[in-house]
Amino acid sequence: MLMVLGVLHAGARHGYELHRILVAHGTVYVDFKKPTLYHLLARLAEQGVVDLKSETGARGPRGERLVYSITARGRALFQQLLRSVLGSYDGNNGGFQVAAGFLAWIPVREAQALLRKRCAGLRARQAAMREAMEQHVSLAQSGAMTEQQATSRFLSADHLLSMMDAELAWMEKTIGYLGHGPRKALVAAMNSRRRAAGE
To answer: What is the reported pTM?
Structure first.
């Protein structure tokens, strides 16, 4: 829903165009099928979050298409969802990946504060994960868990911790970039990315 509202926040779109934009944003939205999108749009229209109007001149037997635009209520919902996802950590990286693309829609200081809040939640989750890993090691050492079970759980937890480390590093870097202002932040981020790629 956040992505759909974000795209409509930038301007009115017809359903086919909206679907094309969602799919173009990569593997996160590959499963966003047209029927799912149209069902969501109908529900959002019922809730007064989007408006729709009929536009003539489309190809096909009907010769018209529906154009969707966001309402004031929809803009408020978009801002609420965006802030909620940016400021919390629930393990749902798909939602965060979408929200990260809309950081520029929030004032810089607030965006930085939301990312700091998410960092704190992520660090708390990391601490709990590390504690669970220690318990697995103790269980393995005591013989209460097989070596295979302990290794499997360790590798799974270690992978998740590595992903959390990467997300924390990105958020801390982004907090710094945002402090430079939008244009300088973009230049700094691109220069950092080029250095990392060895260009």
So the answer is: 0.78
